[in-house]
# Entry
Amino acid sequence: MANRLQTVNLYYSPVLRDITLTLVPGELVALIGPNGAGKSTLLRVLTGYLPPDNGHCLLNDKPLSAWTPQALSRQRAVMRQQNQLGFDWPVEDVITMGRAPWEQSNSRKVVEQIMALTGCAPLSGRKYNALSGGEQQRVQLAQLWVNDAPQGWLFLDEPTSALDLYHQQHLLRLLKNLTQAGNLHVCAVLHDLNLAALWADRLILLHEGEIVAQGSPQQVLQAETLSRWYGAEVHIGQHPGNHAPQVFLAP
Ligand SMILES: Nc1ncnc2c1ncn2[C@@H]1O[C@H](COP(=O)(O)OP(=O)(O)OP(=O)(O)O)[C@@H](O)[C@H]1O
Ligand SMILES: [Mg+2]
# Structure
């Protein structure tokens, strides 16, 4: 059984048109594109929350609609920006509850280790609903841990938008390392093209519900492409550390 998520000529009316893409293991994929392009909608279709009107969305060659909710919840997780719970639980309990589908050990020691790895240790004892958006995202990441690492497909909608500089770097480094280790497949909507250039293996650019460009950061982050699809005037430079393309707005 191929371990991949695939859409074939997928339509979700009236937002998405003719989307064909394949997500494979070991890759960190960034969905980019202007406001209203359909990125969040595509994420919802890829995770099975919205059924396509036409075409296919297949996880391991089986339509998402044919998976039981429980089997699907063992395969993929979604990280949202704001995620208030209907109950006032401490962080430790939210992590334990989120790990329930995997039926893993949730001893105090295991949960403490996971919290240390995901930067949640300072949140110990706090109530989840009272955390900031960025702190809640860290707790959501901790929920995905299986054994020593998170496993399966992780979808994130603008995960760095609420994070400060340190936590942007921490989260993206962590996702990159875990993806390279081969257990986690990451697909994230990112508005910050410079972060995408530093950490994503592949960029998929959406515009008005269609894929208009995809490839490596070098291939997609070109001044002409960005001006055309975002309507912004930009210059492309190089990151001083690793020569990744970096996007600068013309003043
Ligand atoms: N169920 C729906 N029916 C009709 N239009 C919808 C539906 N859901 C979303 N839209 C519209 O589809 C477009 C794409 O929305 P979406 O939220 O996917 O964009 P996005 O790329 O995530 O934008 P942003 O960068 O602002 O988050 C928007 O114009 C939105 O208003
Ligand atoms: Mg969105």
